[in-house]
Amino acid sequence: MNALFDQKTRASEPVLNAIAHMPTRSLSVLMDEGFIRTLTDTHFMRIAALLAQKSYDEGGCPIGAVIVDNASGRILGKGHNTLVQESHPYNHGETSAIQDAGRIDFSQTTLYTSLSPCDVCATLIRMRGFKRVVVGDITNASGNEAMLREAGVQVDILEDSGAIALYARYRRESPALDLEDWQGVSGVHQ
Ligand SMILES: [Zn+2]
């Protein structure tokens, strides 16, 4: 059966949103190789940002991430922060996408994250052998880019204005939740 999105399909916002919401293992139903070849860093970052929006719409922290195979452009994993949704004390966008991808060699992949990685995620990125990370927002948070670069990871900044605006809005609306996501409930109590 032919996939819904082929090389003639424009990677519009609704198309990228459908990709963000589709389970990773079922993406071949949605898009064929011809379509995948048209996707760029900007598109993958938009998918990460749309996963952040999905989390926000669920009442959660708006941070999303996507892992892409460098050679084929195929999406191998994606996810978003689930602090609220799963009452999970440390499942961030990056950890969620890494878990979704499973037990694979990450050295030939790129991780796109809608927000600059925290200490835990930056360490996991380094310890799972990623060679390239693309960061969509260093306006609301930053700091671990230098550490990752020192560890030999190529860090590219590709700011997504939608992701930046969404995170800024969420931080204004839910400052305690933002603090908990970074520092735990103990950080909120201090
Ligand atoms: Zn993190």
Please explain how this structure is put together.
Helix 1 crosses helix 4 (41-57), helix 4 packs parallel to helix 8 (161-173) and helix 8 packs across helix 9. The chain has helices at residues 13-21, 27-30, 33-36, 41-57, 93-101, 119-127, 145-150, 161-173, 175-189; strands spanning 64-69, 75-80, 109-113, 132-135, 154-157. The chain has 190 residues and is of the alpha/beta class. Strands 2-1-3-4-5 form a five-stranded mixed sheet, with helices on both faces. The protein is 45% helix and 13% strand. The protein contains nine helices and five strands; from the N terminus they run ααααββαβαβαβαα.
Number of strands: 5
Strand content: 5-15%
Distance between the termini: 57 Å
Q: Note the main sheet.
A: 5 strands, mixed
| Cα-based radius of gyration, to the nearest Å | 16 Å
- Spatial strand arrangement across the major sheet: 2-1-3-4-5
Q: Which term fits the overall shape?
A: globular
State the helix count: 9
Ligand types: zinc ion
* Low-pLDDT runs: none
